[in-house]
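Input/output pair, single chain:
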Amino acid sequence: MRALHRQLLVWLFAGSALFLGTGTAFAHDILVGSDPANGASLATGPSKVSLTFDLPVKEYFSTITVVGPDGEHYEGGPSSVDGSTVSAPVQPLGPVGTYTIGYRIVSDDGHPVSGAIRFSLTQAGPGHGVPAGQAAASNSAQAAASSSSASSSSSAPSAPAAAAQDQSDESGSGGIPAWPWVLGGVVLVAAGAVVALRLGKGS
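Output:
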């Protein structure tokens, strides 16, 4: 009987460790810093805004918008990703007031994360924003042109480099789905509960 109790405890501890181990796989990125800082007051508008997250950000579908107190957009082009930092150029700002930096990124676990921070401009700038549709179209065109230029200027990787890249992709954290581990944990904990009930009835 004591051996069964010890085995049950081992199963329960293993299930708990499994769930704790997969916890990071479901962690969404959290904004931990920005430039300009949230709530900052600036006399001159920034030429670029940067957002830093606690985990790496996927390089696709990440967008930053800068909307002024006049409702116009002041982002100067598509956003770029460098590890856990997303940045975007900013056009010269216009009227005094509160500017909102909106963002939508794809976190390291593949889930979209969105939010906004704000800063204030204390002295009017010379810039004039554009409507949302025009800003989106311009950003898309610039992103497409940049992607086309990069693909045409880059040469095909050598065989060793391609093999190394394939190996890296296969061994990356994003290549293994988390659901089999979660399912295994559920089965394990359920089995432990069944054994516990049977032991309770038999005692």
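The two ends are 9 Å apart (CA to CA). The longest strand covers residues 97-106.
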